[in-house]
Design brief:
Elements (H helix, E strand, L loop, with lengths): L2 H18 L9 E6 L4 E4 L15 E3 L5 E3 L8 H10 L5 E4 L3 H8 L9 H4 L14 H5 L2 H15 L9 E4 L3 E6 L2 H24 L8 H12 L9
Antiparallel strand pairs: 1-2, 1-5, 2-3, 3-4, 5-7, 6-7
Helix pairs in contact: 2-6, 3-7
């Protein structure tokens, strides 16, 4: 199987996981996968339902957005993906969904507070939510500027995209990323569950505060620290 076919099949499988995990309906959402050695990106085509999506439908682009292979239009969010890949060189896959609870937090323009150990197992800080895009950026290259919006928020708030691999775009929805397509989709699944848990927690106790730092550190470091002991060797 050629490298192009391999990346197409990986991209297809990752996109189908959006549907399998109820992270979007109909044609919403997309996953892209980059091969930085070959300088190509595979991404879901725009407006194609998951139930009819095939590997042949996956669009192959270069890092400037030129279509190298595929007869269909790439995702309407392609320029967001391209901007993130070009700005953050350690990203190899990006997942964008419209999952219910993550979108709810995005629409509320609220970062997700770190309230419990499920959150702390994955990161040690609140999940960031950007401000709504300015009118000037909306009227410009909207999808490209969505990437600008994410990168600027991380830069302004001194957030590392290598440590925080998820973001809520204000009034829009979630983007996650990772070292490969499995991680980027996994992070979208985790993000949705954390958003759901945080919502339930705040409904039960509107006065709840972030969990204490010692417990955050314990749960994060036992999985990701230099002396981590979670899982198998």
């Amino acid at each position: 199987m050629s490298d192009i076919n391999i990346i197409k099949n990986k991209c297809l499988t990752a996109n189908l996981e959006i549907k399998n995990n109820n992270l979007a309906i109909s044609t919403f959402g997309n996953v892209s996968l980059a091969d930085r050695n070959e300088r190509i990106i595979a991404i879901k085509p725009s407006g194609i339902p998951y139930v009819s999506l095939s590997a042949n439908d996956i669009v192959i682009l270069d890092f400037k957005g030129n279509i190298l292979e595929g007869k269909l239009n790439p995702s309407s969010d392609t320029r967001t993906h391209l901007y993130l890949y070009n700005k953050w060189e350690r990203l190899n896959s990006i997942c964008h969904t419209h999952s219910t609870y993550a979108v709810g937090w995005s629409q509320s323009l609220t970062s997700v507070p770190i309230l419990g150990t499920t959150h702390a197992d994955h990161l040690t800080q609140n999940i960031p939510c950007t401000s709504p895009m300015s009118n000037t950026l909306i009227k410009g290259d909207y999808e490209h500027n969505t990437g600008v919006q994410i990168v600027n928020h991380f830069s302004k708030n001194n957030i590392s995209p290598n440590l925080v691999k998820m973001c809520l775009v204000g009034s829009h929805g979630p983007f996650t990323w990772g070292d490969d397509e499995l991680e980027s989709v996994y992070n979208s699944i985790v993000l949705e569950e954390i958003c759901k848990m945080a919502f339930i927690t705040q409904v039960i106790n509107p006065e709840i505060k972030n969990m204490k730092k010692s417990l955050i550190d314990k749960h994060f470091l036992r999985k990701h620290g230099p002396e981590s002991y979670y899982g198998q060797e």
